[in-house]
From TrEMBL:
Gene3D superfamilies listed in its UniProt record: Jelly Rolls
Any Pfam family the entry gives: cNMP_binding
InterPro entries listed in its UniProt record: cNMP-bd_dom, cNMP-bd_dom_sf, RmlC-like_jellyroll
Organism: Streptomyces coeruleoprunus
PROSITE patterns linked to this entry: CNMP_BINDING_3
Top-level lineage group: Bacteria
Protein name (record): Crp/Fnr family transcriptional regulator
Length: 152
């Protein structure tokens, strides 16, 4: 893709600072799964260093298909914001990853208590969601569309 998803710095500074007040430092080893499809989405991360692959299980495949690689400043996990709070994709550390981790329930409570923060956060996540949907579409076309079909 030629465009990248909005990073944490796209969140207006006062709201970014408010969100970061809830952050915990964590790390993941290469090959460690952050989450799997259909599991409870009770937290999310912003990558500080390293790379995380988002992936999807596809019929007939032994390994999940990589949809997108995420790096510095990018949000890992979207399903925590929307009921039923279950992961739609999976994620795996591709290198040593250092990240900020956020408890989803605490962030949702802050969104409810501070509507301006909630709106800013929801708009940021919505932009990322639109980007990821397009990335997923393009990746699945790469995997399944007949070559030379003209399908975009």
């Amino acid at each position: 893709m030629s465009t990248t998803a909005p990073r944490i710095n796209a969140l207006p500074a006062p709201h970014r600072e408010r969100l970061m007040s809830l952050a915990t430092d964590v790390s993941f080893q290469p090959g460690e799964r952050l989450f799997d499809e259909r599991r409870p989405a009770d937290r999310f991360w912003v990558v500080r260093t390293g790379a995380v692959n988002l992936d999807a299980r596809l019929p007939g495949s032994l390994r999940p298909a990589v949809i997108e690689m995420l790096g510095h400043g990018e949000l890992v996990g979207l399903s925590w914001l929307f009921p039923p709070y279950e992961w739609e994709l999976g994620a795996e550390a591709m290198s040593l990853v250092r990240a900020y981790e956020f408890d989803a329930a605490s962030v949702r409570a802050l969104c409810a208590a501070e509507p301006a923060f909630g709106l800013a956060l929801t708009l940021w996540v919505g932009q990322i969601l639109a980007h990821r949907l397009q990335s997923t579409r393009v990746r699945l076309l790469d995997l399944y569309a007949p070559h030379g079909s003209g399908v975009l």
